Amino acid sequence: MDPGIGTKADYARHLGKSRSYITKLVKLGRIPVRKDGKIDFAQADQDRLAGADPSQAEGVTQDATYTKARAAREAYNARLAQLAYERAVKSVLPKASVEHALVECSRVIARHMESLVTEADALDAASRKNGVQAVRAHLKRCIREARQSIADSLTETAGELMKNDNE
Questions:
Q1: How many other β-carbons are positioned within 10 Å of the β-carbon of residue 76?
Q2: pTM above 0.70?
Q3: Residue 22 burial (10 A CB sphere; 0-12, 13-18, 19+)
Q4: In the chain, which stretches have pLDDT less than 70?
Q5: CA distances from 134 to 43, 51, 67, 127, 152 (A)
Q6: What's the N-to-C CA distance of the chain in angstroms?
Q7: For the packed helices 8-15 and 19-27, what is the interaxial angle rounded to 10 degrees?
Q8: Among residues 153, 72, 84, 79, which one has the least CA distance to residue 112?
Q9: Helices (H), the chain
């Protein structure tokens, strides 16, 4: 019997690997099997090493530059994850603060709606002087002023909300 030819189990012992590892390599086509089911060790070694990943070969160490680059990439990814986490946490406001801001905004809107009643005399005068067109123009001006005032109030409330949240 030729010592360079044997079964999968013999070849596994020859390499110091498990039989299942050799079976896997055979299925992947990395180790040729003869027609009689035996393995030629020399041919199998040559074929196995020819298709192997050089970085996985025994005794081969990774280049220090690669290792440093990979460590730098991992550190960068960790910083990005930390930044995303901090942004997400700061974007969530306490429920009580949001409710308070909504109440304040509702008050401002209600105050502006109620102030439209005080425009009745001005609307009547505009109607008598220039008709419906003057009333429309006056109402548009009132609405424009109310929108600006509400927007300013909302901006101020939002600023206070964010300031209180950061404290």
A1: 10
A2: no
A3: buried
A4: 1-3, 51-64, 91-93, 164-167
A5: 100, 88, 77, 6, 27
A6: 84
A7: 110
A8: 153
A9: 8-15, 19-27, 41-50, 64-90, 95-115, 120-130, 132-166
